[in-house]
Amino acid sequence: xxxxxxxxxxxxxxxxxxxxxxxxxxxxxxxxxxxxxxxxxxxxxxxxxxxxxxxxxxxxxxxxxxxxxxxxxxxxxxxxxxxxxxxxxxxxxxxxxxxxxxxxxxxxxxxxxxxxxxxxxxxxxxxxxxxxxxxxxxxxxxxxxxxxxxxxxxxxxxxxxxxxxxxxxxxxxxxxxxxxxxxxxxxxxxxxxxxxxxxxxxxxxxxxxxxxxxxxxxxxxxxxxxxxxxxxxxxxxxxxxxxxxxxxxxxxxxxxxxx
Length: 259
Fold this sequence. Notes:
Layout: H1 2-25, E1 28-29, E2 36-41, H2 48-57, E3 61-66, H3 69-72, E4 76-77, E5 80-86, H4 90-103, E6 108-113, H5 121-128, E7 134-137, H6 142-153, H7 161-170, H8 178-184, H9 188-198, H10 203-210, H11 214-228, H12 233-245
Parallel strand pairs: 1-4, 2-3, 2-5, 5-6, 6-7
């Protein structure tokens, strides 16, 4: 009897394995219940180095790459948390996002783009119409990029401040001076963190003092540097001290909650 039971169990396992193999052979990708997926839509493929970095940072994730929206809306990929779309497909996304959402109902959509100083009206339209929840700038430090992935995977949103700065500049808006204008663009939380940076505090100390994660602090510092138009935290601190001498304070031109 024991031998018969063992043989039956073995046969059942073989049948189950064969079924999974059959599904994979027909294009169905069946991750385990705990495994999540990032679906990348790019006609030119996706960086193997970035794929490896994502899968190393997020052990529960794997990256699947498809060439176009048609394939993204028909491929049988389960547990998709985030759909990353190449910038070259930004124009077409407005027409395909409803189909993507119906096929991958729980997934957020983000654009992978090299943010430059020129306004991309299509990209701005996707952000303003809330079709995408994030823009992933590829021309930044890998640690920052992975932190942005973490924000999006947690249900948050991220749009680089540079995107809005370039829009304002191209629309003919006056660029204000660093000492007062740029600093008044900082949120209350960014101002708070900049004060810690100016004191020479490291990210870990800032995170502990403010009850934030180091990843969140990194994102805030990245945004501060972008808004101030500087290259590093040392230059940001110099502007902070110059602003203090010039009478620029947290309340100047801003009354925003901590975020």
